[in-house]
From TrEMBL:
Residues 104-274 form the Nose resistant-to-fluoxetine protein N-terminal domain. This is Nose resistant-to-fluoxetine protein N-terminal domain-containing protein. InterPro entries: Acyl_transf_3_dom, Nose-resist-to-fluoxetine_N, O2_lipid_transport_reg. It holds the Pfam family NRF. Keywords: Membrane, Transmembrane, Transmembrane helix. It comes from Gryllus longicercus. SMART domains: NRF. It comes from the Eukaryota. The chain crosses the membrane at residues 294-314, 365-386, 406-425, 445-463, 533-552, 582-600, 612-630, 650-674, 686-706, 726-744. GO terms for molecular function: acyltransferase activity, transferring groups other than amino-acyl groups.
Length: 775
């Protein structure tokens, strides 16, 4: 029978972290440290019972936390029945901090109470034991993350125990993270025999399966609040409330060191701050949850805004624009009318309009959906799927390159922004002869910032009070703590000047890039208008400088714009900090968008393109898009080996190729050569989704992280998890609300603040066009 089959059958013993014991048994076969290994070396057949005996003889995982029967009898007076003979527990392991040397005295005392009462089969002690993680089946399919029973653990309450001087033991749930790796083999004088080498390969293969083939390679010290620590195993512990995160980590660490000694495995563990839940470990009752003045203030702002919206909606009986005779305050209040804003949201796209390029709506909507799925993969990797191996296998498909290279979608948003702002600025200069630069900057800030402020306030002060679960402290609380410290950076759009791992609402780095690059638009458009050749030379110089920076930075620092299989988490954050969030690094699509938008405004739609040139343009665009999206498909393979030289070439040319391909699509549709594609990109559902795309971008991670944080049990992974229908509907609903309450009202308020004629009124169509101009 194959070694892997024996390993799979040997997983039946109900022992905590017994998957490690499986590896010990096969490792023993590798090292010749047991009768089973000796038989293997001699070429003898190994029956399943022999391997099972080897597994059962391996060190009991975490059982070293239990004292001997005599010692426990001396401490609590309980009869010294052996755990393996207990008819109820049936030899199942018990995790305890009773004898953890580095745990606090009160934690050790309550742990001894737990052991004593468990021996007596007290219900609360059985619940505490039952709530901790146990070894399931399917570990070799990636089912290594075990969340135990969160609610059962935090609900444990012994009441006052008279036999223990009135001691009251309550449950505290802690989520430990365990890193497992093979120890470096000792130098040998002669090569190992073939059977031993085969057994060593079996150990490696088994560990790879336990860790779901290491989709992303992580370490305990890596931050896990945004990008998942994929190869760290989550294991639930239920301990007395007197035990802190430090106590739990000390106890687990001690026992794993004993477990790993001489096994050929390196086992390290951590219990991060915020990953223990339940009553505070101190002797007092602890602070009352949910009492946060800052949270109350943030909610007060939301309520005030809701009251203004309700007032405006009730007063807006006909949905018509505010009379021209109304004052600025009246117009500002009525800008929040839901009736009026809903009409703007669902309005049919006009045939033209100032700055309205119809196909851009569809392009923005489709790339927003693509980016949504790419972002969803991040949270899929956080989930404790019972078949996590299948998640990695799905990610190994060649088409997954369209998600691994998701930077092209954010590049698309930058290009669309550049096209629209240059197109409208050029038209404005043609009409007025000049551009009010400051007006443009203020208008953009006024439009984008209120919704962003609402989001970071929610992240920092409200989100943490809305739920609880095994990973809540990691994906919600840690993000809340970062936002409390750093949200001011978001409001100033300078969050990308700081490390990616310290960024509030990490995904909003795109807004900072867009805001910073938008500073280039007015001077560049002005230069193009006054000196077309000089302006073109400056645009070319910026592109060359940006491409050179991407190439050199990627080559010299081992960066990768594509998330390849097995990419170390440290390299991913390094890429984000040195490439992804740097404005000059990302300038190519924006600057090329400025060039396209300017020349589109000058050329107009009446352009003749010969059929041969048209066919060649579409063919070239297809080839360039393939290069940017799919050419790196081999990076999804399990055996992919990173090459800095290849990554540098891709980093240098990919944004250029993608911008050219997307630019051709926009230009062809704009000039009437888009055919059915242009018609599709202009259909009403895509137009409506485009109008809420900014809010979709802001709200999606809050919904993702909430669902990860409250997840209490393992699920079955399927490819359809990429877009969960209920989750998607929630994101859409929240995005519509944010658009109606923040996005559209800011259009009218912007005009009140910035237009010289405060008595002019806006129709629904005019406000829709303003929405397009400020994108």
């Amino acid at each position: 029978m194959l070694v892997a089959e024996r390993v799979t059958r040997a997983l039946r013993p109900s022992r905590l972290l017994a998957c490690f014991s499986i590896l010990f048994a096969v490792r023993a076969e590798c090292e010749g440290g047991s009768d089973v290994a000796a038989s293997a070396s001699a070429g003898a057949a190994i029956d399943d019972d022999a391997l099972l005996r080897a597994v059962l003889a391996a060190p009991r995982p975490l059982a070293a936390g239990l004292a001997s029967d005599e010692e426990d009898s001396r401490e609590d007076g309980a009869p010294g029945a052996a755990w393996g003979e207990d008819p109820l527990l049936g030899g199942a392991p018990v995790f305890s901090l009773a004898h953890a040397a580095n745990a606090s005295a009160r934690c050790r005392r309550q742990s001894r109470v737990f052991l004593s009462e468990l021996r007596r089969h007290r219900l609360w002690a059985l619940q505490m034991w039952d709530a901790g993680a146990k070894l399931p089946s399917g570990v070799l399919r990636g089912n290594a993350n075990q969340l135990g029973d969160f609610d059962e653990c935090v609900g444990v309450d012994s009441g006052a125990l008279r036999a223990w001087g009135g001691e009251r033991v309550r449950g505290r749930y802690c989520l430990a993270e365990v890193d497992v790796s093979l120890a470096a083999p000792a130098a040998a004088a002669a090569p190992a025999p073939a059977p031993r080498r085969e057994a060593a390969e079996a150990v490696r293969a088994a560990l790879d399966m336990v860790l779901a083939y290491r989709f992303i390679r992580s370490e305990l010290r890596d931050p896990g609040h945004f990008v998942p620590k994929f190869t760290s195993i989550n294991w639930a512990l239920c301990v007395p409330a007197a035990c802190s995160e430090g106590d739990a980590q000390a106890g687990v660490g001690e026992q794993l060191r004993r477990l790993g000694a001489g096994s050929g495995l390196q086992l390290t563990a951590a219990v991060e701050r915020g990953l223990c839940y339940g009553p505070a470990p101190g002797p007092g009752p602890g602070p009352a949850p949910g009492r946060s003045p800052a949270a109350a203030a943030a909610i007060g702002l939301y309520v005030a805004l809701a009251l203004v919206t309700a007032t405006a909606t009730l007063r807006d009986r006909d949905g018509k624009p505010t009379p021209a005779s109304a004052g600025a305050a009246e117009r500002a209040v009525m800008a929040f009318s839901l009736r009026r804003n809903w009409a703007a949201l669902v309005a049919t796209l006009g045939a033209g309009g100032d700055g309205d390029i119809p196909c851009i709506h569809g392009v923005r909507a489709l790339f927003s959906l693509s980016l949504y799925v790419a972002h969803k993969v991040i949270t899929l990797a956080l989930m404790p799927y019972v078949n996590r191996v299948e998640l990695t296998q799905a990610a190994n498909e060649p088409l997954s390159s369209m998600l691994r290279a998701s930077i092209v979608y954010t590049d698309s948003f930058l290009m669309l922004s550049g096209v629209l702002i240059a197109y409208n600025l050029s038209r404005e200069m043609s009409r007025k002869g000049s551009v009010k630069w400051m007006k443009r900057y203020v208008a953009r800030y006024v439009r984008l910032t209120p919704a962003l402020v609402a989001l970071v306030l929610f992240y920092g002060y409200v989100f943490e009070h809305l739920g609880q679960g095994p990973q809540w402290g990691r994906v919600v609380q840690q993000n809340a703590d970062i936002c409390k410290r750093n949200m001011w950076r978001n409001v100033l759009y300078i969050q990308n000047f700081f490390p990616f791992e310290d960024m509030c609402a990490t995904h909003t780095h795109q807004l900072a890039l867009d805001m910073q690059l938008s500073l280039l638009a007015p001077p560049l458009v002005t230069l193009l208008s006054k000196s077309p050749i000089g302006g073109a030379a400056v645009l070319l110089a910026i592109n060359v400088l940006s491409a050179a920076l991407r190439y050199v930075s990627t080559r010299d620092n081992d960066l990768s714009l594509v998330i390849y299989h097995g990419m170390p988490m440290a390299q991913l954050y390094k890429t984000a900090n040195m490439a992804y969030e740097i404005a000059l690094y990302r300038a190519t699509p924006y600057v090329m968008g400025i060039a396209l938008g300017y020349y589109m405004s000058k050329i107009g739609k009446n352009v003749y393109i010969p059929k041969a040139a048209l066919a060649g343009g579409w063919a070239a665009a297809g080839a360039l898009a393939y290069y940017a999206l799919l050419s790196r498909w081999a990076e999804a393979r399990l055996d992919f080996e990173y090459s800095a030289a290849e990554a540098a070439v891709y980093a240098g040319w990919s944004p250029v190729a993608w911008a050219l391909a997307l630019g051709w699509l926009i230009f062809a549709c704009f000039t009437g050569y888009g055919g059915y594609l242009n018609t599709f990109l202009s259909i009403k559902p895509l137009v409506i989704f485009s109008r809420i795309s900014y809010a979709v971008y802001l709200t999606q991670f809050a919904v993702f992280f909430y669902n990860v944080g409250v997840t209490r049990t393992s699920e079955q992974f399927t490819i359809l998890k990429g877009i969960d229908p209920v989750e998607f509907i929630v994101v859409i609903a929240l995005s519509v609300v944010m658009t109606l309450i923040f996005d559209f009202p800011m259009q009218e308020i912007k005009n009140i603040l910035l237009t010289s004629d405060t008595r002019s009124k806006k129709s629904v169509e005019q406000r829709k066009n303003d929405f397009n101009k400020t994108l």
